[in-house]
Automatic annotation (TrEMBL):
This is Uncharacterized protein. The keyword Transmembrane applies. The keyword Membrane applies. The gene is 5566223. Keywords: Membrane, Transmembrane, Transmembrane helix. The chain crosses the membrane at residues 9-30, 42-61, 73-94, 106-129.
Length: 146
C-alpha cells in the first residue's frame, strides 16, 4: 500500500518530469517544424502541460485539492484527445501506410503515461484530503487529562 507521503512525492516527481518532457518536446519537435500544422496542434497542449504541472506542484505543496482536480481533469481530456489521434493513426495503418505504426504506438504509450499521471494525481488528492488542517498560530488545543 502506498502511503500518503509517497503519493505526494510521486506528484512532485510527475510534475517535474512532465515539465522536462514538455520542454524537450518543444525544443526538439515544435520549434524545428514551426511552419507545419503539427506545431499548431502540439503547442497549446504543451503550454497547458507546463502550466498545469506547476499548478500540481502548488496544489500539493499548499494543500489545494481544487488545483489537483484541475490537473487530473486535464490529464483525462488529454487522454481522450490522444485516443482520437490514435484512432486516426490506426485508420491510416489499416489503409496501407505502414510507416504510421510508430506514431500510433507512440500515442498509445502517451495515453498510458497520462493515465498513470492521472492515477498519481488521484492518490495525491486523497493524500491532501486526508491530512488534518494545520494549526494556526495562537490556536488552543484541549486534551483530556484522564
Amino acid at each position: 500500500m502506498i502511503t500518503h507521503k509517497l503519493y505526494k512525492l510521486l506528484c512532485y516527481l510527475t510534475a517535474v518530469l512532465n515539465i522536462f518532457l514538455v520542454i524537450q518536446i518543444m525544443f526538439r519537435v515544435i520549434i524545428p517544424v514551426r511552419s507545419t500544422g503539427l506545431a499548431d496542434i502540439l503547442f497549446p497542449p504543451c503550454m497547458g502541460n507546463l502550466g498545469l504541472a506547476a499548478i500540481l506542484i502548488i496544489g500539493v505543496a499548499k494543500r489545494m485539492p481544487s488545483f489537483i482536480k484541475l490537473f487530473r481533469i486535464f490529464m483525462f481530456i488529454q487522454m481522450a484527445f490522444l485516443l482520437l489521434i490514435s484512432v486516426y493513426f490506426f485508420r491510416l495503418v489499416i489503409h496501407g501506410q505502414e510507416e504510421m505504426r510508430v506514431p500510433a504506438n507512440g500515442t498509445l504509450m502517451l495515453i498510458a503515461l497520462f493515465g498513470i499521471e492521472a492515477l498519481i494525481a488521484s492518490g495525491g488528492l486523497q493524500a491532501v484530503l486526508s491530512e488534518p488542517p494545520p494549526f494556526e498560530e495562537g490556536a488552543v488545543v484541549f486534551q483530556r487529562l484522564a
